[in-house]
Design brief:
Length: 315
């Protein structure tokens, strides 16, 4: 029986479109960033793009999809409305064997959606309308939904709103009381900048595993280079996995540093989901009690596969 993992995150429908650099300039978008937008901004952008693909997304949901692809047994909780995008969301996960125990209901806001603009250099620029997804509250997460899992996985993005912070702490408390391990991704550098102290305290007091890229980790520690960050984080006695693009990845575990080479790819098509799929490979191996080197290796392999195709799904 596969060990179970529960992902908790923003339930967001990904709307993928190819654009040129000029489009980003005209719309005042910073390449590679994630910008939160309101409903009317979302509708305006949607009018001006040619949609390539629509799929259930959100960082943690992408990770759970990757774990399903690796034959794990993931569940995901995220808040959707019972609208067109909400129905598409649920079906999109269930079709790939990700259990979605959240009961959708009629909400005041629509299901969240993110327009992912892919430029010719494969960078992705995201404009996200959170909709109802950011109102995931403590009452949406019951003790029963966490029990029976070995690990919960949370995304840094969730910390962005008042309700979510309470929900985050609620999920962590239930997990700690029931000896369920807690993992978190740092999501993106702007997210870390906004919540640096909170994230640092979470790592120190609550988390078992933290996953982030080199820039996010340096931002978290306030250090200029990775070596200084590593030296600071070594004292925490946690598992910290750090991705470094083509420089590979590394993990800190009990004062030990484990390095892993990157996997060479022929052609990068789209960087969407690289971090999410690294997390999928890493956490799946961790649940299978593999050593940390194997966790990093599988993470790197899964990430290398996803960047050679459009979108964040490996099916």
């Amino acid at each position: 029986m596969n060990k179970k993992i529960l992902g908790i995150g923003n339930a967001i429908v990904d709307v993928l479109a190819k654009v040129d650099d000029e489009f980003l300039i005209q719309n005042n978008l910073v390449k590679g960033s994630m910008k939160l937008i309101n409903k009317s901004e979302f509708e305006n952008l949607e009018k001006n793009i040619k949609i390539e693909k629509v799929v259930a997304g959100g960082s943690v949901a992408n990770t759970m999809a990757g774990i399903a692809y690796l034959k794990g047994s993931p569940s995901f909780i995220g808040k959707v409305n019972s609208d067109k995008f909400g129905n598409l969301y649920k079906k999109s996960l269930e079709d790939i064997n990700v259990n979605f125990p959240y009961i959708e209901k009629n909400e005041s806001l629509p299901t969240g959606a993110s327009i992912i603009l892919i430029t010719p250099d494969s960078e992705r620029t995201m404009c996200t309308y959170l909709g109802i997804s950011s109102h995931l509250g403590a009452d949406d997460i019951s003790k029963n939904s966490i029990l029976g899992h070995e690990l919960i996985f949370l995304e840094g993005y969730l910390w962005d709103k008042g309700d979510s912070e309470k929900m985050f702490k609620h999920a962590i408390n239930i997990s700690k009381q029931n000896k369920v391990k807690i993992a978190m991704s740092l999501s993106d550098i702007f997210c870390v900048t906004r919540h640096k102290q909170d994230f640092y305290n979470l790592l120190k007091n609550d988390l078992d595993i933290l996953i982030g890229n080199e820039n996010e980790i340096n931002e978290l520690t306030g250090k200029k280079n990775l070596l200084d960050s590593i030296n600071q984080l070594k004292e925490f006695n946690k598992i910290i996995a750090i991705t470094r693009s083509d420089k590979g990845s590394l993990a800190i575990k009990n004062n030990e540093i484990i390095n892993c080479e990157s996997v060479k790819v022929n052609k990068v098509l789209d960087l969407t989901g690289a971090g999410d799929l690294f997390a999928a490979g890493f956490l799946k191996e961790y649940l299978d009690k593999s050593d940390i080197k194997k966790c990093l290796t599988t993470g790197s392999i899964t990430a290398s596969k996803i960047i050679q195709k459009i979108g964040a799904r490996l099916e």
